[in-house]
Amino acid sequence: MKLGVNSVLFSGYDLKTAIRYIKFCGYDGIELSSIVGMVEHLTDTASDAELAEIRKMVEEVGLDLYCVEAATNILVAENRERTKRVFERAAKLGIPMVTTGSGGKSDDEESTEDSIRAIEELTQAANDMGIQYALKLHYGQSIYNTKTALRLMDEVKHSALGLNFDATHVGRVGDDPVEALDVLSDHIIHSHIRDTFMEQLQIASPEFQTAGRGTVPLKEVVDKMTEVDYQGATVLEIIGAKDYELPEITAIAAESKGYLQRLIEEAKEKRGEFQC
Fold first, then answer.
1. pLDDT tens-digit readout, 199-241
2. Does pTM top 0.85 for this prediction?
3. In the chain, what are the domain boundaries?
4. CATH no. of 2-275
């Protein structure tokens, strides 16, 4: 299992700083944040020269580029066009996928149908660029739980479409994240991971999103990911740290890396014993 960090954790700093400290903390890769209103470490207007500089910075430290997060309300036509421009830049960087949520509202049929049509449009656009589109199940949006995710994958059958699984979103809507992971495993191509307090609807402050500090069943999630032989990247996505000092952010990333790496190693050992 490959571990990376979404650069949104370093939203108060430039991409060069994010890359340097993500590598320093021992991660294998990075997910670029392209989120309007949070941080755009990759913009939808980046020139070829700017893309070359990003590629150079990443290659110099030896990180892989796993994904771009371009979270937005895709029901707005202008936002879909921006997302397509991000697809183009991701493809030029050799990044295999871009992830967004579905937009819309949970348990609203008209909204869900609109989201599925928007996802279908973006999936085709991603395919045209030679990348994949990882749709993230997201609390409060149209595609938010196991049932709606299965509906999406049934209605939009396309090799360029897969799911981005985040236990904190699935768990907060009432689904068991471990069971959801098992059911959806054939469709999951990307994963976000963090901690929080599952009994609360609001995501906790960054220090309690640090892996091991909240109540997300991360051990069981990692065990299940290993059991289903998940081969994609698992990216630490921690939001809300824009005003944190760099040592605090580095501590969050480093502590999470140590915790998650131990869970991965334990899961592999457990799986190996089971297979014997």
1. 888 999 999 999 999 999 999 999 999 999 999 999 999 999 9
2. yes
3. 2-275
4. 3.20.20.150
